[in-house]
Amino acid sequence: MKPLNPIIAACPPSGIRRFFDIAASMDNVISLGVGEPDFVTPWPAREAGIYALERGYTTYTSNAGLLELRQAICADLAARHTVSYQPGDECLITAGVSEGLDVTLRVLLAPGDEVIIPEPCYVAYGPCVSFAGGTPVPVPTDGADGFRLHIDRVAAAVTARTKAILIASPANPTGAVQTRDDLTALVALAARHDLYLISDEIYERLSYTTPHTCLPSLPAAYERTVLLGGFSKAHAMTGWRVGYICAPAPIIELVYRIHQYTMLCAPHVSQLAALEALRSGDDDVADMVADYDRRRRLFVKGLHHIGLACPEPGGAFYAFPSITTTGLNSETFAEELLRTQRVAVVPGSVFGPSGEGHIRCCYATALPLLEEALQRIGRFVDTLRG
Amino acid sequence: MREILDVLRADGHATPERIATLTGLDADEVRAQIGAWERAGLIRRYKAVVDVDRLREVTGIDLIIALIDVSVTPARGLGFDDIAARIARFREVRSVFLVSGAQDLRCVVTGASMHDIADFVAKKLSTIERVTATATHFVLKTYKDDDELFIETEPDRRLRVAP
Predict the structure, then answer these.
(1) ipTM value of the model?
(2) Chain A residues in contact with B7 (beta carbon < 8 A)
(3) Got the DSSP string for A200-219?
(4) Which of A147, A228, A247, B82 has a CA that sits 20 to 30 A from residue B111's CA?
(5) For residues A296 and B24, is the Cβ–Cβ distance under 8 A?
């Protein structure tokens, strides 16, 4: 047989998969290894989905997605972030941010183009850049300063082949929120080198310590930024697969060309549910965010109590504590913690080499379970320290 | 300060120390605020939310609830307050609301049996001077009460480990 696509074949399987297999075979596991809310989608959106099914909204929508939904998204962004996109030609509905990221990279990259990615980062970033024919160029950040973006490191990584910078704030897996000043400096750097910015803002509404900075709202950012957003996290709609891309019309035009052939449209029912979530979901989002914030405080305090240093996560629903004082690497720590105490976390190394020495803990879990998990982690760390 | 009340409304057992952890406020500050609210009568009481259907299944104790709409003739100078207070003082009466609509007062009344409640309506409620009519609705099943859902909650269907 002839060889399969070497780019795909060279992509290692996600390090998360192995842990999934181990955890799935065990009972009494408390999982902090997930990447989604523990809330079920709030009822108004679910009810709108049911109503849509009853009324037979089971067809394709226009390729770009329902105009009403795009209008609602653009109005919402304008109201909360003073960023202005035209629903007609600057916004397209995707099957989640995952599809949005994939088509964006394929539109922006020519073979061999480089994309700078601050690390630790979401597991899909590097592979999606590679699949699009590009080369991911990771730039490390450190737990010591809360995974702050170092503009000088980003600048040092720029070459003649650099095409874009891919950034997420708040970030998975660190929960880090970048400051407005650092993001402004990043935009200036991108402008200096004529680079695109891909801003994954799926966690934007889960910002606890400072108001969210929407990257394209910064001066001179709009023209070179592709904004990726969605409903999965804030509205607890992961399984509905609905997100959006906002960008200047020439970019959206090319995004449209891929999307119309490969996805056609995001699920119709999901789009209607997302529309209802936007129209009436603010109070539900506020309640969920308040709940995450309480869990965040309790969990991070608990980690410090155990003696695991954890930079304060300002957003998302992850804590990314350091486990270097235990003497174990992150994979061994996670595996032994799961085997002996039945707590599932994700080793930091999965999110890039600079994630080594950390574990990702998702605190989107009920308070009693979080407290039990903290006790188990504490017992585990105690046994390591003798 | 609102956060303190949010935590307490969800969990009346929460100690000031726990509330402090969850909200990021200082424990002494939380304690002082709760004390002030208790003294001001804003926080009236901490009590359990009981699922009466489960109460019957688990303990065999019957607790019958009825919503009773009451029409009254308001008294000159006193409006509805005087008669509402007379009704509210009965120990069978759990809640009394002045409501808009066809009737004037909506009462929530509890008893050990339907007979108890019928007796209460016949002998006490409807004999009060200026009560002109009552309409009794027995609760057959409680789905949600006091913010608490009594229907089956959705299980955690998430994958255990996911990116």
Answers:
(1) 0.80
(2) 294
(3) E-TTTT-B-SS----GGGST
(4) B82
(5) no
Are residues B100 and B126 located together in one domain of the fold? yes
CA A369 to chain centre: 24
Q: What does the domain layout of chain A look like in residue ranges?
A: 6-41+283-385, 43-280
CB A200 within 8 A of CB A97: yes
Pull the structure tokens for residue B85.
């207070």
Unique residue bearing structure tokens 């402090």: B20
What sign does the CA torsion over A337, A338, A344, A349 have? positive
Say how many C-beta atoms besides its own lie within 10 A of residue B90's C-beta. 15
pTM assigned to the model: 0.92
**Shortest alpha-carbon distance between residue A23 and chain B (Å):** 7
Q: Quick check: A34 and B161 CB within 8 A?
A: yes
Domain count, chain B: 2
3-state DSSP of A45-71 = HHHHHHHHHHCCCCCCCCCCCCHHHHH
Looking at the DSSP assignment, which residues form a beta bridge with residue B137? B67
Shared-domain flag, residues B134 and B61: yes
Percent composition of chain A: helix, strand, coil (DSSP 3-state, to 5): 50, 15, 40
CB A294 to CB B163 under 8 A? no
Residue B89 belongs to a domain with what CATH number? 3.30.70.920
Is the same domain home to B83 and B122? yes
Instruction: Tell me the shortest Cα–Cα distance from A268 to chain B, in angstroms.
Output: 23
Task: Write out chain A's pLDDT in tens, 386 residues.
Answer: 999 999 999 998 887 777 888 888 899 999 999 999 999 999 999 999 999 999 999 999 999 999 999 999 999 999 999 999 999 999 999 999 999 999 999 999 999 999 999 999 999 999 999 999 999 999 999 999 999 999 999 999 999 999 999 999 999 999 999 999 999 999 999 999 999 999 999 999 999 999 999 999 999 999 999 999 999 999 999 999 999 999 999 999 999 999 999 999 999 999 999 999 999 999 999 999 999 999 999 999 999 999 999 999 999 999 999 999 999 999 999 999 999 999 999 999 999 999 999 999 999 999 999 999 999 999 999 999 87
Q: Which fold has domain A43-280?
A: Aspartate Aminotransferase; domain 2 (3.40.640)
Whether residue B65 sits in one domain with residue B31: no
Residue B108: which domain range? 52-141
Chain A hits for B162, CB-CB cut-off 8 Å, are: 16, 20, 33-36
CA distances, A327 to each of A300, A324, A371, B132 (Å) = 21, 6, 24, 80
Residue A264 has phi, psi (to 5 degrees) of: 65, -60
- For A27-61, letters b (16+ CB in 10 Å) and e give eebbbbbbbbbbbebbebbbebbeebeeeebeeeb
Check if CATH label 3.50.50.60 holds for domain A6-41+283-385.
no
> Do the Cβ atoms of A232 and A96 come closer than 8 Å?
yes
**Residues forming beta bridges with residue B134, ordered by sequence position:** B70
Domain shared by B58 and B136, yes or no: yes
- The shortest C-alpha distance from B17 to chain A (Å) reads 11
